[in-house]
Design brief:
single chain; about 120 residues; Four Helix Bundle (Hemerythrin (Met), subunit A); about 85% helix
């Protein structure tokens, strides 16, 4: 059950590197975005999102909490939208990437809340 949350937290951290790219590059900060570049990091972001979706489904099925799957639908929809925006280059604009970062935090919170609520209900 920790895997879907871990993947969503990873994506929060990864996406939050985008607004600071220029400053990180100028100061020599060696985060993943600076080391690998935008295109590769977008691919990593997509892979982590898809793995998070799969991990959520498997966790809900394994823990016998199918209600969590219903609760997860909004977060899944937002996450799919984020992947789409990343593929379409949404990371290029400063204002857009900040909106994506905010939505990404909602995905993380929704993923966590869906699992917890599924367990409690």
């Amino acid at each position: 059950m920790a895997l879907p949350i871990s993947f969503s937290v990873f994506n929060v951290i990864l996406l939050n590197e985008f607004p600071d790219y220029e400053a990180d590059l100028a100061t020599g900060k060696a985060n993943l975005l600076v080391r690998l570049g935008h295109r590769r990091v977008v691919q990593i972001y997509i892979a982590a999102a898809v793995l998070g979706w799969a991990a959520f489904i498997l966790a809900a099925m394994y823990a016998s909490i199918p209600f969590a799957l219903i609760l997860y639908v909004p977060s899944l929809g937002v996450s799919i939208g984020l992947v789409y925006r990343m593929i379409r280059g949404g990371w290029r604009g400063r204002e857009e990437i900040e909106r994506l970062c905010g939505a990404n935090i909602l995905v993380n919170l929704g993923t966590s809340a869906s699992l917890v609520a599924g367990l409690l209900l």
